[in-house]
Amino acid sequence: MPSTSPLSIDQMIRHIQNWVECESPSHDPAALRTMADILLRDATALGLQTQTLSLGEETGPLLHFHNRRAGDDRPGIMLLAHYDTVHPVGTLERNPFRQEEDRLYGPGIYDMKAGTWLALTAMGSLSEPDSSALPIDFVIVPDEETGTFYSREHIEKFARNTRYVLVCEPARAEGGRCVTARKGTGHIYVTTHGRPAHAGVQHQKGRNAIQEMAHQVLALQAMTDYERGITVSVGLIKGGTTSNVVPEHCSVDVDFRIPDPEAEHVLREKVDQLKAVTPDVEVDVKFAVNRPPMPRTEATAALLKKAQAYAKEAGFTLEEAPMTGGGSDANFTAALGIPTLDGLGADGDGAHTLREHILVSTLPERLVFWQKMLKGLN
Ligand SMILES: [Zn+2]
């Protein structure tokens, strides 16, 4: 028999509304701090111990909530979430928090405030964790949507003393599936340096950096190998100053995704072979992995089995999504060899768009699922 959740649906909706109506885009430190204060207040009200770690003026603080008894330094469960969203302040005016039938809309609700709320509420409901339960450390970062450059080292430090990592990113649409494998992500930055000249008077003396980049763009795009799971996408291009000057500089920012470390080597070798096609033009190339691939290991599969059993007790079937091309902070902890399960947050759809929503009817079972898992996992 599925267990029932301790909160009414209306109470859940009000809590989630409070969080969604505090807009918290990654690039707005003041907004992030306001959101962090709400999280701290709510965690304290749930009886959790809280710590904040400043990451500087450019972003919000990293939050750490835990239920460890004094002296208990056993490796436990690490919960991982982010409180930044991709939506700038003001989005709420155009896209207010609202319910339409089973859907609850609002900026950041699906990615990932509702999922964070579920996990935090479940953690807080374990009022007196008996000594057999694993201690829980909940780490919530302000910069996931922009690459986790401030928080990464701290996430990795926490993860090293952890038995399992559970990530509250949204459950995949079409059945609320969880995530056991993610591609690695990175950037290739290419700059071409030509020679400027008057485009009308001395055309033949110029060396056109944009023309050269056109060759590089086609070569980069051709590195995509769908069968191997490698994608390369030139996403941003800048070049030239005005149309009557032969452009001296051009640069591109290229997104790539790799399914495993071998694919990184394959791609890196191809990128190393990029060279100028146009005489007298220089080409600079930088290759940078941001998030390493998150492989599906045997330990991950074992953790998935346990999670599936808790989901069943809570009244729903937890399926596994195929490897996704989207990275998350799960990539960092999985790459350290810590069994990591992701996509355990709210069920819904439309991440990073104004259609972003969660499914109200799934909230009670998801909350019970989190409670059972945090209590039982060992
Ligand atoms: Zn997210």
- Kindly name the structural category: alpha+beta
What form results from the Cα inertia axes? elongated
Name the beta content range: 15-25%
**Mean of pLDDT:** 95
Largest sheet features: 6 strands, mixed
Continuous helix count:
10
- Order of H and E elements: HHEEEHEEHEHEEEEHEEEHEHEHEEEH
- The CA-CA distance between the termini, in Å, is 23 Å
Strands of the biggest beta sheet: in what spatial order? 1-2-6-3-7-16
In this entry the ligands are:
zinc ion
**Total number of strands:** 18
Helicity range: 25-40%
Radius of gyration: 23 Å
List low-confidence stretches. none
Note the main attributes of this structure.
elongated; 6-stranded mixed β-sheet; binds zinc ion; 378 residues; alpha+beta; single chain; 4-stranded antiparallel β-sheet; 10 helices
Write a structural description.
This protein is α+β, with helices and mostly antiparallel strands and 378 residues long. It has helices spanning 9-20, 29-45, 91-94, 109-125, 152-160, 209-221, 261-272, 298-314, 330-335, 363-376; strands at residues 49-53, 62-66, 76-82, 98-100, 103-105, 136-141, 162-167, 178-179, 184-193, 197-198, 231-239, 245-246, 249-258, 282-291, 320-321, 340-341, 348-349, 357-359. Strand 4 (98-100) and strand 5 (103-105) form a beta hairpin. The chain is elongated. The protein starts with 8 loop residues before the first helix and ends with a helix. The chain binds zinc ion. Zinc ion (ZN) is lined by residues 82, 111-112, 144, 169.
